[in-house]
Protein backbone atom coordinates (compact mmCIF):
# COMPACT_ATOMS: atom_id res chain seq x y z
CA UNK A 1 0.00 0.00 0.00
CA UNK A 2 1.49 3.34 -1.03
CA UNK A 3 0.83 7.03 -0.65
CA UNK A 4 2.11 9.96 -2.71
CA UNK A 5 4.10 12.64 -0.85
CA UNK A 6 5.57 15.71 -2.59
CA UNK A 7 5.31 14.11 -6.00
CA UNK A 8 6.97 10.83 -4.95
CA UNK A 9 5.67 7.51 -3.74
CA UNK A 10 6.16 6.64 -0.08
CA UNK A 11 5.26 3.25 1.28
CA UNK A 12 3.02 3.15 4.33
CA UNK A 13 5.55 0.74 5.77
CA UNK A 14 7.60 3.87 6.47
CA UNK A 15 4.98 4.80 9.06
CA UNK A 16 5.50 1.48 10.83
CA UNK A 17 9.24 1.97 10.63
CA UNK A 18 8.97 5.32 12.40
CA UNK A 19 6.72 3.87 15.10
CA UNK A 20 9.15 1.01 15.66
CA UNK A 21 11.56 3.43 17.34
CA UNK A 22 9.16 3.84 20.26
CA UNK A 23 8.15 1.50 23.05
CA UNK A 24 11.65 0.19 23.89
CA UNK A 25 12.71 2.63 26.64
CA UNK A 26 13.20 1.56 30.24
CA UNK A 27 10.69 2.85 32.78
CA UNK A 28 12.95 5.50 34.36
CA UNK A 29 13.80 6.91 30.93
CA UNK A 30 10.08 7.22 30.16
CA UNK A 31 9.63 9.10 33.44
CA UNK A 32 12.48 11.46 32.56
CA UNK A 33 10.99 12.20 29.13
CA UNK A 34 7.53 12.75 30.63
CA UNK A 35 8.98 15.17 33.20
CA UNK A 36 10.82 16.95 30.38
CA UNK A 37 7.56 17.44 28.44
CA UNK A 38 5.88 18.84 31.56
CA UNK A 39 8.84 21.08 32.38
CA UNK A 40 9.05 22.32 28.79
CA UNK A 41 5.40 23.37 28.86
CA UNK A 42 5.71 25.03 32.29
CA UNK A 43 8.89 26.94 31.50
CA UNK A 44 7.49 28.10 28.17
CA UNK A 45 4.37 29.33 29.98
CA UNK A 46 6.42 31.27 32.55
CA UNK A 47 8.46 32.84 29.76
CA UNK A 48 5.45 33.61 27.55
CA UNK A 49 3.59 35.43 30.34
CA UNK A 50 6.55 37.75 30.98
CA UNK A 51 7.16 38.09 27.25
CA UNK A 52 3.52 39.04 26.66
CA UNK A 53 3.61 41.73 29.31
CA UNK A 54 6.91 43.05 27.98
CA UNK A 55 5.82 43.08 24.33
CA UNK A 56 2.41 44.65 25.02
CA UNK A 57 4.10 47.29 27.20
CA UNK A 58 6.53 48.00 24.35
CA UNK A 59 3.63 48.34 21.90
CA UNK A 60 1.79 50.72 24.27
CA UNK A 61 4.92 52.74 25.21
CA UNK A 62 4.98 51.43 28.79
CA UNK A 63 7.75 49.87 30.89
CA UNK A 64 6.27 46.51 31.82
CA UNK A 65 7.50 44.24 34.63
CA UNK A 66 10.98 45.20 35.81
CA UNK A 67 11.15 44.41 39.53
CA UNK A 68 11.29 40.65 40.12
CA UNK A 69 14.48 39.10 38.84
CA UNK A 70 16.78 40.43 36.10
CA UNK A 71 14.74 42.53 33.64
CA UNK A 72 11.59 41.36 35.44
CA UNK A 73 11.92 37.80 34.11
CA UNK A 74 10.67 36.24 37.39
CA UNK A 75 7.42 38.24 37.40
CA UNK A 76 5.23 35.32 36.30
CA UNK A 77 6.80 33.06 38.94
CA UNK A 78 6.04 35.70 41.59
CA UNK A 79 2.45 35.93 40.35
CA UNK A 80 2.06 32.17 40.64
CA UNK A 81 3.36 32.13 44.20
CA UNK A 82 1.09 35.05 45.09
CA UNK A 83 -1.99 33.27 43.71
CA UNK A 84 -1.19 30.10 45.64
CA UNK A 85 -0.90 32.09 48.91
CA UNK A 86 -4.13 34.05 48.43
CA UNK A 87 -7.31 33.08 50.26
CA UNK A 88 -9.27 30.34 48.51
CA UNK A 89 -13.00 31.11 48.44
CA UNK A 90 -15.92 28.82 47.62
CA UNK A 91 -19.22 30.45 46.72
CA UNK A 92 -22.29 29.21 48.61
CA UNK A 93 -24.46 28.39 45.60
CA UNK A 94 -21.76 26.37 43.85
CA UNK A 95 -21.78 22.62 43.29
CA UNK A 96 -18.67 22.02 45.38
CA UNK A 97 -17.39 18.82 43.72
CA UNK A 98 -17.76 20.08 40.15
CA UNK A 99 -16.63 23.57 41.19
CA UNK A 100 -13.31 22.19 42.49
CA UNK A 101 -12.81 19.64 39.70
CA UNK A 102 -13.39 22.08 36.82
CA UNK A 103 -9.93 23.79 36.96
CA UNK A 104 -8.21 20.41 37.17
CA UNK A 105 -10.17 19.08 34.17
CA UNK A 106 -9.21 22.22 32.24
CA UNK A 107 -5.48 22.11 33.06
CA UNK A 108 -4.50 18.42 32.81
CA UNK A 109 -5.50 17.75 29.14
CA UNK A 110 -3.44 20.77 28.06
CA UNK A 111 -0.24 18.92 29.04
CA UNK A 112 -1.24 15.55 27.56
CA UNK A 113 -0.82 16.60 23.93
CA UNK A 114 2.95 16.92 24.36
CA UNK A 115 3.23 13.13 24.63
CA UNK A 116 3.14 12.82 20.81
CA UNK A 117 4.93 16.07 19.85
CA UNK A 118 8.33 15.29 18.22
CA UNK A 119 11.21 17.45 19.49
CA UNK A 120 13.66 15.74 17.15
CA UNK A 121 13.93 13.01 14.49
CA UNK A 122 12.89 9.51 15.55
CA UNK A 123 15.74 7.85 13.65
CA UNK A 124 18.41 10.16 15.16
CA UNK A 125 18.45 8.96 18.74
CA UNK A 126 20.17 10.92 21.50
CA UNK A 127 22.04 9.47 24.47
CA UNK A 128 20.64 9.90 28.01
CA UNK A 129 22.75 8.21 30.69
CA UNK A 130 24.09 5.79 28.11
CA UNK A 131 20.67 4.86 26.66
CA UNK A 132 19.73 5.75 23.07
CA UNK A 133 16.24 7.18 22.74
CA UNK A 134 14.30 9.39 20.28
CA UNK A 135 13.47 12.98 21.22
CA UNK A 136 9.78 12.19 21.60
CA UNK A 137 7.89 10.56 24.44
CA UNK A 138 5.82 8.31 22.15
CA UNK A 139 3.99 8.27 18.84
CA UNK A 140 0.71 6.80 17.64
CA UNK A 141 -0.68 5.91 14.21
CA UNK A 142 -3.47 8.37 15.06
CA UNK A 143 -1.36 10.92 16.95
CA UNK A 144 -3.23 13.96 15.58
CA UNK A 145 -6.59 12.47 16.61
CA UNK A 146 -5.15 12.02 20.09
CA UNK A 147 -4.27 15.74 20.16
CA UNK A 148 -7.78 16.69 19.02
CA UNK A 149 -9.30 14.44 21.68
CA UNK A 150 -7.26 15.96 24.51
CA UNK A 151 -8.01 19.49 23.30
CA UNK A 152 -11.73 18.69 23.23
CA UNK A 153 -11.70 17.37 26.81
CA UNK A 154 -10.21 20.60 28.14
CA UNK A 155 -13.30 22.60 27.17
CA UNK A 156 -15.37 20.57 29.64
CA UNK A 157 -13.49 22.27 32.48
CA UNK A 158 -14.61 25.69 31.26
CA UNK A 159 -18.23 24.58 30.73
CA UNK A 160 -18.40 22.88 34.14
CA UNK A 161 -16.84 25.92 35.81
CA UNK A 162 -19.52 28.17 34.36
CA UNK A 163 -22.34 25.82 35.32
CA UNK A 164 -21.14 24.91 38.83
CA UNK A 165 -20.49 28.48 39.98
CA UNK A 166 -24.21 29.16 40.47
CA UNK A 167 -23.91 32.59 38.88
CA UNK A 168 -25.23 34.10 35.68
CA UNK A 169 -22.05 35.54 34.20
CA UNK A 170 -19.96 32.35 34.53
CA UNK A 171 -22.81 30.35 33.01
CA UNK A 172 -22.92 32.65 29.97
CA UNK A 173 -19.13 32.39 29.64
CA UNK A 174 -19.28 28.58 29.71
CA UNK A 175 -22.00 28.52 27.05
CA UNK A 176 -19.99 30.87 24.84
CA UNK A 177 -16.90 28.69 25.24
CA UNK A 178 -18.77 25.52 24.23
CA UNK A 179 -20.32 27.17 21.16
CA UNK A 180 -16.96 28.68 20.19
CA UNK A 181 -15.18 25.33 20.53
CA UNK A 182 -17.71 23.55 18.33
CA UNK A 183 -17.50 26.26 15.67
CA UNK A 184 -13.72 26.33 15.43
CA UNK A 185 -12.96 22.67 16.08
CA UNK A 186 -14.69 21.68 12.82
CA UNK A 187 -12.58 24.02 10.70
CA UNK A 188 -9.46 22.91 12.58
CA UNK A 189 -10.16 19.24 11.82
CA UNK A 190 -10.72 20.03 8.15
CA UNK A 191 -7.39 21.86 7.97
CA UNK A 192 -5.73 18.75 9.43
CA UNK A 193 -7.38 16.53 6.83
CA UNK A 194 -5.48 18.24 4.01
CA UNK A 195 -2.22 17.37 5.78
CA UNK A 196 -3.35 13.75 6.11
CA UNK A 197 -4.03 13.59 2.37
CA UNK A 198 -0.51 14.79 1.57
CA UNK A 199 1.26 12.64 4.14
CA UNK A 200 -0.83 9.47 4.12
CA UNK A 201 -0.45 9.21 7.90
CA UNK A 202 -1.70 10.75 11.17
CA UNK A 203 1.57 10.07 12.97
CA UNK A 204 3.30 13.26 14.07
CA UNK A 205 6.83 11.95 13.43
CA UNK A 206 5.85 10.82 9.91
CA UNK A 207 4.24 14.19 9.14
CA UNK A 208 7.45 16.03 10.09
CA UNK A 209 9.56 13.59 8.06
CA UNK A 210 7.35 14.20 5.02
CA UNK A 211 8.28 17.91 5.08
CA UNK A 212 11.94 17.33 4.28
CA UNK A 213 11.63 19.11 0.92
CA UNK A 214 8.94 21.72 1.52
CA UNK A 215 6.93 22.78 4.56
CA UNK A 216 3.17 22.30 4.42
CA UNK A 217 2.69 25.98 5.20
CA UNK A 218 3.92 26.55 1.62
CA UNK A 219 2.21 23.55 0.00
CA UNK A 220 -1.08 24.05 1.89
CA UNK A 221 -1.27 27.80 2.62
CA UNK A 222 -5.05 27.88 3.00
CA UNK A 223 -4.99 25.07 5.57
CA UNK A 224 -2.24 26.87 7.46
CA UNK A 225 -4.15 30.17 7.57
CA UNK A 226 -7.36 28.42 8.63
CA UNK A 227 -5.53 26.65 11.43
CA UNK A 228 -3.94 29.92 12.59
CA UNK A 229 -7.42 31.48 12.88
CA UNK A 230 -8.92 28.44 14.59
CA UNK A 231 -6.10 28.06 17.11
CA UNK A 232 -6.72 31.63 18.29
CA UNK A 233 -10.43 30.89 18.65
CA UNK A 234 -9.75 27.51 20.27
CA UNK A 235 -7.64 29.06 23.04
CA UNK A 236 -10.14 31.89 23.73
CA UNK A 237 -7.51 34.54 23.09
CA UNK A 238 -8.03 38.09 21.89
CA UNK A 239 -9.67 39.08 19.61
CA UNK A 240 -11.77 35.92 20.20
CA UNK A 241 -11.82 36.03 24.03
CA UNK A 242 -15.59 36.17 24.32
CA UNK A 243 -15.95 33.50 27.09
CA UNK A 244 -14.12 35.83 29.53
CA UNK A 245 -15.11 39.21 28.13
CA UNK A 246 -14.77 41.61 31.05
CA UNK A 247 -16.87 44.22 29.25
CA UNK A 248 -20.12 42.27 29.60
CA UNK A 249 -19.32 39.11 31.62
CA UNK A 250 -17.11 40.59 34.38
CA UNK A 251 -14.61 37.73 34.00
CA UNK A 252 -16.60 35.01 32.28
CA UNK A 253 -16.43 31.40 33.39
CA UNK A 254 -13.76 32.09 36.07
CA UNK A 255 -15.52 35.04 37.73
CA UNK A 256 -16.21 33.12 40.97
CA UNK A 257 -12.74 31.55 41.22
CA UNK A 258 -9.74 32.70 43.26
CA UNK A 259 -6.34 31.55 44.50
CA UNK A 260 -4.94 28.29 43.12
CA UNK A 261 -8.10 27.41 41.17
CA UNK A 262 -7.93 30.69 39.26
CA UNK A 263 -4.21 30.06 38.67
CA UNK A 264 -5.05 26.66 37.14
CA UNK A 265 -7.40 28.29 34.63
CA UNK A 266 -4.73 30.84 33.71
CA UNK A 267 -2.17 28.04 33.42
CA UNK A 268 -4.50 26.04 31.16
CA UNK A 269 -4.94 29.00 28.81
CA UNK A 270 -1.22 29.55 28.35
CA UNK A 271 -0.40 25.84 28.11
CA UNK A 272 -3.05 25.56 25.40
CA UNK A 273 -1.30 28.39 23.57
CA UNK A 274 1.97 26.45 23.72
CA UNK A 275 0.20 23.25 22.64
CA UNK A 276 -1.49 24.72 19.56
CA UNK A 277 1.76 26.47 18.62
CA UNK A 278 3.62 23.15 18.87
CA UNK A 279 0.95 21.46 16.73
CA UNK A 280 1.19 24.22 14.12
CA UNK A 281 4.98 23.82 14.10
CA UNK A 282 4.67 20.05 13.69
CA UNK A 283 2.04 20.06 10.94
CA UNK A 284 2.90 23.12 8.87
CA UNK A 285 6.34 24.54 9.79
CA UNK A 286 8.54 21.48 9.44
CA UNK A 287 8.56 20.58 13.14
CA UNK A 288 12.12 20.21 14.43
CA UNK A 289 13.69 20.81 10.99
CA UNK A 290 16.02 23.77 10.54
CA UNK A 291 14.85 26.65 8.32
CA UNK A 292 15.74 26.65 4.64
CA UNK A 293 19.06 28.52 4.50
CA UNK A 294 20.51 26.67 7.49
CA UNK A 295 19.41 23.18 6.44
CA UNK A 296 21.02 23.51 3.02
CA UNK A 297 24.44 24.84 4.06
CA UNK A 298 24.87 22.84 7.29
CA UNK A 299 24.50 19.06 7.24
CA UNK A 300 24.43 18.71 11.03
CA UNK A 301 21.58 21.18 11.58
CA UNK A 302 19.02 18.37 11.97
CA UNK A 303 21.11 16.06 14.15
CA UNK A 304 21.88 15.81 17.83
CA UNK A 305 20.27 18.40 20.12
CA UNK A 306 20.01 21.10 17.42
CA UNK A 307 16.45 20.12 16.33
CA UNK A 308 15.21 21.09 19.81
CA UNK A 309 16.51 24.63 19.24
CA UNK A 310 14.68 25.04 15.91
CA UNK A 311 11.49 23.68 17.47
CA UNK A 312 11.67 26.12 20.39
CA UNK A 313 12.30 29.08 18.08
CA UNK A 314 9.28 28.26 15.89
CA UNK A 315 6.99 27.79 18.90
CA UNK A 316 8.05 31.12 20.40
CA UNK A 317 7.50 32.92 17.09
CA UNK A 318 3.92 31.64 17.08
CA UNK A 319 3.52 32.74 20.70
CA UNK A 320 4.70 36.20 19.62
CA UNK A 321 1.91 36.08 17.01
CA UNK A 322 -0.62 35.52 19.83
CA UNK A 323 0.81 38.50 21.72
CA UNK A 324 0.84 40.66 18.59
CA UNK A 325 -2.86 39.98 17.99
CA UNK A 326 -3.76 40.85 21.56
CA UNK A 327 -1.87 44.13 21.42
CA UNK A 328 -3.26 45.10 18.01
CA UNK A 329 -6.85 43.96 17.41
CA UNK A 330 -9.95 44.83 19.45
CA UNK A 331 -12.39 42.19 20.62
CA UNK A 332 -14.99 41.20 18.04
CA UNK A 333 -18.69 40.87 18.72
CA UNK A 334 -20.05 37.42 19.45
CA UNK A 335 -22.17 37.32 16.28
CA UNK A 336 -19.07 38.23 14.24
CA UNK A 337 -17.20 35.40 15.96
CA UNK A 338 -19.86 32.84 15.05
CA UNK A 339 -20.21 34.20 11.52
CA UNK A 340 -16.47 33.86 10.90
CA UNK A 341 -16.49 30.27 12.13
CA UNK A 342 -19.62 28.93 10.41
CA UNK A 343 -19.91 31.10 7.29
CA UNK A 344 -16.26 31.65 6.38
CA UNK A 345 -13.81 29.18 7.90
CA UNK A 346 -15.87 25.98 7.58
CA UNK A 347 -17.04 26.52 3.95
CA UNK A 348 -13.58 27.66 2.82
CA UNK A 349 -11.90 24.69 4.51
CA UNK A 350 -14.37 22.24 2.94
CA UNK A 351 -13.85 23.65 -0.56
CA UNK A 352 -10.08 23.68 -0.05
CA UNK A 353 -10.13 20.08 1.15
CA UNK A 354 -12.04 19.03 -1.99
CA UNK A 355 -9.46 20.79 -4.17
CA UNK A 356 -6.56 19.15 -2.34
CA UNK A 357 -8.21 15.73 -2.65
CA UNK A 358 -8.76 16.28 -6.37
CA UNK A 359 -5.13 17.31 -6.89
CA UNK A 360 -3.82 14.30 -4.96
CA UNK A 361 -6.08 11.93 -6.91
CA UNK A 362 -4.90 13.37 -10.24
CA UNK A 363 -1.26 13.16 -9.15
CA UNK A 364 -1.77 9.50 -8.22
CA UNK A 365 -3.13 8.93 -11.75
CA UNK A 366 0.08 10.47 -13.18
CA UNK A 367 -1.58 13.53 -14.68
CA UNK A 368 0.73 16.29 -15.87
CA UNK A 369 1.02 19.25 -13.48
CA UNK A 370 -0.11 21.75 -16.13
CA UNK A 371 -3.28 19.72 -16.76
CA UNK A 372 -3.97 19.59 -13.04
CA UNK A 373 -3.66 23.39 -12.79
CA UNK A 374 -5.90 23.78 -15.87
CA UNK A 375 -8.63 21.47 -14.59
CA UNK A 376 -8.66 22.71 -11.00
CA UNK A 377 -8.30 26.36 -11.99
CA UNK A 378 -11.10 26.00 -14.54
CA UNK A 379 -13.40 24.49 -11.91
CA UNK A 380 -12.66 27.31 -9.47
CA UNK A 381 -13.24 30.00 -12.12
CA UNK A 382 -16.53 28.32 -13.10
CA UNK A 383 -17.71 28.36 -9.49
CA UNK A 384 -16.80 32.03 -9.15
CA UNK A 385 -18.71 32.91 -12.34
CA UNK A 386 -21.76 30.99 -11.14
CA UNK A 387 -21.70 32.81 -7.80
CA UNK A 388 -21.37 36.14 -9.65
CA UNK A 389 -24.41 35.39 -11.80
CA UNK A 390 -26.43 34.35 -8.74
CA UNK A 391 -25.52 37.60 -6.98
CA UNK A 392 -26.57 39.65 -10.02
CA UNK A 393 -29.99 37.99 -10.20
CA UNK A 394 -30.40 38.34 -6.46
CA UNK A 395 -29.76 42.10 -6.71
CA UNK A 396 -32.37 42.37 -9.47
CA UNK A 397 -34.95 40.60 -7.31
CA UNK A 398 -34.16 42.94 -4.41
CA UNK A 399 -34.60 45.98 -6.65
CA UNK A 400 -37.95 44.71 -7.92
CA UNK A 401 -39.15 44.13 -4.37
CA UNK A 402 -38.08 47.64 -3.32
CA UNK A 403 -40.82 50.35 -3.11
CA UNK A 404 -41.20 52.72 -6.09
CA UNK A 405 -38.94 55.72 -6.17
CA UNK A 406 -35.99 53.83 -4.77
CA UNK A 407 -36.73 54.94 -1.21
CA UNK A 408 -35.59 52.39 1.36
CA UNK A 409 -38.23 50.70 3.45
CA UNK A 410 -38.63 52.22 6.91
CA UNK A 411 -37.00 50.18 9.64
CA UNK A 412 -39.22 47.90 11.66
CA UNK A 413 -40.03 49.26 15.11
CA UNK A 414 -40.16 46.91 18.04
CA UNK A 415 -40.63 46.86 21.78
CA UNK A 416 -37.44 45.78 23.56
CA UNK A 417 -39.43 44.72 26.65
CA UNK A 418 -42.00 42.61 24.81
CA UNK A 419 -40.52 39.34 26.08
CA UNK A 420 -40.31 40.49 29.69
CA UNK A 421 -36.63 41.42 29.59
CA UNK A 422 -34.66 43.93 27.48
CA UNK A 423 -33.18 42.69 24.21
CA UNK A 424 -31.08 44.62 21.64
CA UNK A 425 -32.56 45.43 18.21
CA UNK A 426 -31.93 43.06 15.33
CA UNK A 427 -30.70 44.22 11.89
CA UNK A 428 -33.52 46.14 10.21
CA UNK A 429 -35.24 47.02 13.49
CA UNK A 430 -35.24 50.39 15.21
CA UNK A 431 -35.85 51.06 18.87
CA UNK A 432 -38.00 53.95 20.05
CA UNK A 433 -35.95 56.88 21.26
CA UNK A 434 -36.35 57.68 24.94
CA UNK A 435 -36.94 61.43 25.55
CA UNK A 436 -34.32 62.88 27.83
CA UNK A 437 -34.67 65.82 30.21
CA UNK A 438 -32.42 68.72 29.07
CA UNK A 439 -29.59 69.60 31.39
CA UNK A 440 -29.30 72.97 33.15
CA UNK A 441 -26.48 74.03 30.79
CA UNK A 442 -28.57 73.22 27.71
CA UNK A 443 -31.49 75.19 29.09
CA UNK A 444 -29.34 78.24 29.73
CA UNK A 445 -27.80 78.07 26.23
CA UNK A 446 -31.19 78.28 24.48
CA UNK A 447 -32.43 81.01 26.83
CA UNK A 448 -34.95 78.82 28.61
CA UNK A 449 -35.36 78.51 32.32
CA UNK A 450 -33.19 75.84 33.91
CA UNK A 451 -34.74 72.45 34.34
CA UNK A 452 -36.24 71.96 37.79
CA UNK A 453 -34.57 69.65 40.24
CA UNK A 454 -36.36 66.32 39.99
CA UNK A 455 -35.54 65.40 43.59
CA UNK A 456 -36.86 68.72 44.92
CA UNK A 457 -40.06 68.37 42.86
CA UNK A 458 -40.66 64.86 44.20
CA UNK A 459 -40.15 66.09 47.79
CA UNK A 460 -42.69 68.89 47.25
CA UNK A 461 -45.22 66.40 45.86
CA UNK A 462 -44.68 64.14 48.89
CA UNK A 463 -45.21 67.14 51.24
CA UNK A 464 -48.47 68.10 49.53
CA UNK A 465 -49.69 64.54 49.89
UniProtKB/TrEMBL annotation:
It catalyses: a quinone + NADH + 5 H(+)(in) = a quinol + NAD(+) + 4 H(+)(out). Residues 399-465 are annotated as: Disordered. The keyword Hydrolase does not apply. It is an enzyme of class 7 (translocase). It holds the Pfam family NADHdh. The chain crosses the membrane at residues 26-51, 96-120, 140-163, 184-203, 215-233, 262-288, 308-328, 340-360, 372-393. NDH-1 shuttles electrons from NADH, via FMN and iron-sulfur (Fe-S) centers, to quinones in the respiratory chain. The immediate electron acceptor for the enzyme in this species is believed to be ubiquinone. Couples the redox reaction to proton translocation (for every two electrons transferred, four hydrogen ions are translocated across the cytoplasmic membrane), and thus conserves the redox energy in a proton gradient. This subunit may bind ubiquinone. This is NADH-quinone oxidoreductase subunit H.
